[in-house]
Design brief:
Number of domains: 1
Number of strands: 8
Strand order of the largest sheet: 3-2-1-4-7-6-8-5
Shape: globular
CATH architecture: Alpha-Beta Complex
Radius of gyration: 17 Å
Amino acid sequence: MLSIIIPTLNEEKHLSVLLPSIKKQGYKNYEIIVADAGSADNTLKIAKASNCITINGGLPAVGRNNGAKIAKGNYLLFLDADVILPGNFLKTAIDEFENKNIDIASCRIIPLSNKKIDFILHGVANFYMLITQRFYPHAPGFCILIKKNIHNAIRGFNEKLKLAEDHAYVNRAKKHGKFKILRLPKIFVSVRRLETDGRINISIKYILCEIYRMIFGEIKTNIFGYKFGHYYEKIRSQKKDGAES
């Protein structure tokens, strides 16, 4: 069985697209767990209407770990709410995962954009993931497939890391099994981070992040000032409201 785990916060717009793309899959042996960080919109209503299991979440690493704790599947698939699964994605991914005896995997990414620069940037990311997979694996948190026993062996995502906790996760997991970027399945990903924070700004931060990790190890302080998007905005808003009251 496959457990699909999705951390959310105010994701009604994207979840209403992702969930139907999952329902359309030919592969049906799955459950969907939505780990919500306190949405004020219709995120939970949409999740429950699609028969998802809903639990308390938090920042992405927390939500993923909370979901994994109650997962019934022997495989875990971590997705973000703003991705879309192409037709037959699940069956293609599971088949390759099993046929090649893989234990941890991700896949190549296709931007949900009509801008050439976005395809170039994601093409570079795909190439980097492919050439480093054997010795320094990378897997974006919006698409990680892993055996549950390995997730448990490494005690899940490190919730103390400030950035690249997904890459750190697969690096630790690789010590317990075989990691691979899947050859056949591809996933559609949002470019909203690029739109809001700027393509040059994000690219520079990711490059500096990689250099830092190679030299000093995992990122335990907010040295790059990286904001977890809507999670950060909610926390900032709560602090502002508390100060004014």
